[in-house]
């Protein structure tokens, strides 16, 4: 019932604002004059219900916009006036008649402030303006879509509820009409949702999860597997924020691409933390972040594979030896209660600290007390830890085979690479000698400030989108950076 009522309101609103609506008014006036002598004006008003008016209007004038939307979809037309107005505004092209993907229409994902609803006009529940916040705002006595959201598709928030879809904001914290696809589709109808909205929202791929869009080599992965899947994602979106050294070997020509990862962004917090803790005593050589390791199975499993923990065990034999006497921290290497830790070489006891999964601040706390970050992983498209450590002025000891994040490492300037066990000792020796003394040659903070962070990467992403899809999108006023958020 609610849906029908709101459809009616939307149609009426549209009727009055549109050119055919004007014609209708003229016609209505003519009918009134003709019948005036026979029927009282009040009776005529009563007899012509809203439905009859619209029915007559549809039959006689049949504007394309009315028929452009199948009736099943018309039921899902926005249920508040703000959305209605936005849709009418778009309706200069009949194609832009706003409609919802049927499976999304009933989702209670509109944020009202403290609670959620299927649409803004469902937010107040009799409580008025105080229950109308979040994505909505109180206007002319009703709860309507926030005017701050006029640049994005009305279903934007419904779509980003799904893991694969990630929102984008501008430098002022406003959402823009772009959604990043960061992993293979998960829900059965994710692909249908994408296909339904792809002309009205700009969807771009982003490498973030496992080796997406490439096939995951992780044997514990639950993602869709196989070359066919890989080819599908490589050619599905008009553009891709990727991590590859050789993108031309993978993407078809028609896909616009930019070397850019989630880990290029949001480095202010670690930088600030680093400044505040610049005088902390360095008590560890390295920190290794294990994501959330598979402690119950002794660090064998999906997360441990991603962070190459099997290699860490071999490397520890070398690092803990009396030749190097390395001290370090293995983060997320203990279960939540701190009662069980992954096994490490006996030689490391007293030299290596193992922690439970840490919050951001605690993690930064360990980085501030360390000389460098250890990134032995291969299967990682966007290693956040690398840029976080660099923003705290820590260089990296990094696996040369890493899928993403290799671009942050300039040997001698931001850290050292190794390939495997054969050259690990050499690289370890170099970074230890360079960082244990007073005058480190590395300038990782300078490097990330010059090349990454929101100011640099946000601007580059904005230019990339403007260049290729500028004709398809309107940005909120004052937009100068685009920032992937919510990851
Ligand atoms: C949405 O809700 C309406 C009213 O309860 C119902 O008739 C319709 O089938 C629902 N649509 C979907 C896709 O679940
Ligand atoms: C490592 O520590 C052991 C025992 O404390 C010591 O004998 C050895 O000289 C140290 N090696 C280096 C390279 O500092
Ligand atoms: C770990 O690193 C080594 C050395 O580069 C590599 O040979 C191995 O394939 C990696 N394993 C995983 C699971 O990433």
TrEMBL record:
Residues 59-95 are annotated as: Disordered. Gene3D superfamilies: Glycogen Phosphorylase B. Keywords: Membrane, Transmembrane, Transmembrane helix. Residues 59-74 have a biased composition (Polar residues). The chain crosses the membrane at residues 21-42. This is Exostosin GT47 domain-containing protein.
């Amino acid at each position: 019932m609610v849906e029908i009522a709101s459809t009616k309101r939307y149609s009426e609103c549209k009727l009055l604002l549109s050119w055919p609506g004007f014609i209708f008014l003229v016609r209505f006036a003519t009918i009134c004059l003709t019948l005036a002598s026979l029927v009282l004006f009040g009776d005529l008003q009563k007899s012509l219900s809203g439905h009859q008016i619209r029915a007559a209007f549809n039959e006689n004038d049949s504007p394309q916009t009315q028929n452009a939307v199948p009736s099943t979809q018309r039921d899902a037309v926005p249920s508040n006036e703000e959305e209605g107005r936005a849709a009418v505004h778009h309706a200069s092209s009949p194609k832009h008649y706003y409609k919802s993907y049927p499976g999304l229409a009933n989702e209670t994902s509109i944020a009202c402030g403290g609670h959620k609803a299927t649409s803004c006009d469902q937010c107040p529940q009799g409580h008025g303006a105080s229950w109308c916040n979040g994505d909505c705002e109180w206007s002319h006595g009703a709860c309507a879509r926030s005017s701050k959201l006029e640049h994005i598709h009305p279903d934007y928030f419904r779509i980003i509820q799904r893991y694969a879809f990630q929102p984008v904001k501008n430098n002022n914290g406003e959402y823009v009409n772009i959604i990043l696809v960061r992993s293979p589709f998960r829900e059965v109808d994710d692909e249908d949702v994408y296909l339904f909205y792809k002309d009205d929202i700009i969807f771009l791929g982003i490498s973030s999860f496992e080796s997406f869009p490439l096939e995951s080599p992780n044997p514990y992965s639950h993602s869709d597997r196989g070359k066919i899947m890989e080819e599908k994602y490589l050619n599905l979106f008009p553009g891709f924020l990727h991590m590859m050294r050789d993108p031309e070997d993978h993407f078809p020509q028609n896909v616009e691409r930019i070397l850019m990862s989630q880990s290029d962004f949001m480095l202010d917090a670690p930088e600030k933390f680093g400044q505040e803790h610049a005088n902390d005593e360095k008590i560890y050589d390295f920190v290794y972040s294990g994501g959330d390791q598979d402690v119950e199975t002794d660090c064998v499993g999906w997360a441990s594979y991603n962070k190459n923990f099997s290699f860490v065990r071999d490397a520890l034999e070398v690092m803990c030896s009396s030749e190097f006497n390395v001290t370090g921290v293995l983060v997320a290497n203990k279960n939540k209660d701190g009662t069980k830790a992954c096994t490490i070489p006996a030689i490391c006891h007293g030299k290596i600290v193992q922690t439970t999964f840490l919050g951001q601040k605690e993690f930064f706390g360990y980085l501030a007390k360390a000389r460098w970050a250890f990134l032995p992983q291969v299967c990682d498209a966007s290693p956040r830890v690398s840029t976080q450590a660099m923003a705290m002025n820590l260089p990296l000891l990094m696996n040369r085979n890493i899928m993403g994040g290799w671009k942050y490492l300039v040997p001698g300037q931001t850290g050292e690479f190794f390939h495997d066990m054969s050259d690990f000792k050499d690289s370890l020796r170099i970074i230890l000698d360079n960082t244990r003394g007073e005058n480190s040659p590395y300038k990782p903070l300078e490097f990330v400030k010059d090349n990454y962070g929101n100011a640099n990467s946000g601007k580059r992403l904005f230019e990339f989108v403007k260049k290729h899809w500028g004709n398809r999108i309107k940005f909120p006023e004052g937009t100068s950076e685009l920032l992937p958020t919510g990851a």
